Amino acid sequence: MFYEDLSRYGYTEDGDTFYDPHNLRIVRFEPPYERLNIGWLSDAEPWASGPAPAGFIDKLLAVIEAQAINQMLGIHPCDSCAIPFDDPHPWYVPRTGNRCASWGTGEIRVPGTSGTAFAAPTLIGHYVADHGYLPPKAFTDAVLAFDPHTHRPPRHPWLPFPWIPEDVEPEWIE
């Protein structure tokens, strides 16, 4: 699914659903921030490539590992990978040298300037590390400034994103 970088997010109309990776609870809400697309690539469309800024890949992979947003029941394969990786790792296990899974199941959110958040598929880590995709500078700067382990909302400290509305109640998954 291709969306131009920095265009208005439109993959789902259902708001954002954040999953607690350690317990069976979620929060769903209509975002109070504007979501901007980043990294929704397709082989049929051109995209920027180049070396990533120092520390960016590690920081991006940390965000992907910490967050679970809008998880889908299926998986989305990378359009650029002709065949799956040739090693025995399951698709979801990170590989040495920043080689990432070539399948995605959800999204991440990175706070941008006031009132905006970047919305990217989890495959963005693979695109950057394995295919040399270079996201716009506004996104790379935002990722480098964001720490999902410390930027958490006071009412929901188990969620690795700071802008969760205070009135949102967690739901338990049965």
Question: How are strands sequenced across the largest beta sheet?
Answer: 1-2-8
Rg, Å, rounded = 16 Å
Total strands: the figure is 8
SSE string: EEEHEEEEHHE
Question: What is the tally of helical segments?
Answer: 3
How helical, in percent, are the residues?
10-25%
CA-to-CA gap between the ends?
Answer: 31 Å
Largest sheet: 3 strands, antiparallel
Outline type: globular
Explain how this protein is built:
The protein has about 170 residues and is α+β, with helices and mostly antiparallel strands. It contains three helices and eight strands; from the N terminus they run βββαββββααβ. It has helices at about 55-65, 125-130, 135-145; strands spanning about 15-20, 25-30, 35, 75, 105, 105-110, 115-120, 170. The strands form three sheets. The chain has a three-stranded antiparallel β-sheet with strand order 1-2-8, with no helix packed on it. Strands 3-7-6 form a three-stranded mixed β-sheet, covered by helices on one side. Strands 4-5 form a two-stranded antiparallel sheet. A hairpin with a 5-residue loop joins strand 1 and strand 2. Helix 1 runs antiparallel to helix 2 (about 125-130). The longest helix has 11 residues, at about 55-65. The radius of gyration is 16 Å and the shape is globular. The mean pLDDT is about 85.
